[in-house]
Automatic annotation (TrEMBL):
The lineage of its organism: Bacteria, Pseudomonadati, Pseudomonadota, Gammaproteobacteria, Enterobacterales. Residues 70-174 form the Transposase IS4-like domain. One of its GO terms (biological process) is DNA transposition. It comes from Escherichia coli. InterPro entries: RNaseH-like_sf (IPR012337), Transposase_11 (IPR002559). GO terms for molecular function: DNA binding; transposase activity. This is IS4-like element IS421 family transposase. It comes from the Bacteria.
Amino acid sequence: SRPECIRSLAFGEADYIVRVHWRGLRWLTAEGMRFDMMGFLRGLDCGKNGETTVMIGNSGNKKAGAPFPARLIAVSLPPEKALISKTRLLSENRRKGRVVQAETLEAAGHVLLLTSLPEDEYSAEQVADCYRLRWQIELAFKRLKSLLHLDALRAKEPELAKAWIFANLLAAFLIDD
């Protein structure tokens, strides 16, 4: 979620949905002032999602271009998931000898998504569902690669490769619960 990577997506042909850290980008208001991320998160009703339009500034790099608009969506985690997220954050930082900021712990109760998808066509819930689905697909492929060793294509000819892939996918579906 670097500004220059998101910028290339924002001005390209495709839309994007990326997960971002509350301090990971230079957040700006439409007027170019610093966007108060924690104020935004604290302003959400308990357990409710929220969204706003922000400007993504370049992180001090003059050649990076002007700030560009993006849609910020904050998805509130259920209390049990938020607790897991905060516990993981604390243990990782304790292991590395770091102190966690109170704001970082507070923000851990949300998943922050940045997208170019228009609000009038895709609700915040639809964007969050799409992001979750993307990760389910990613994990399914990871399982296929590890369980069936699908990380290397053994056939060289296109027809053999296609048959090998289909046979392995069929095997994966048969053994999956």
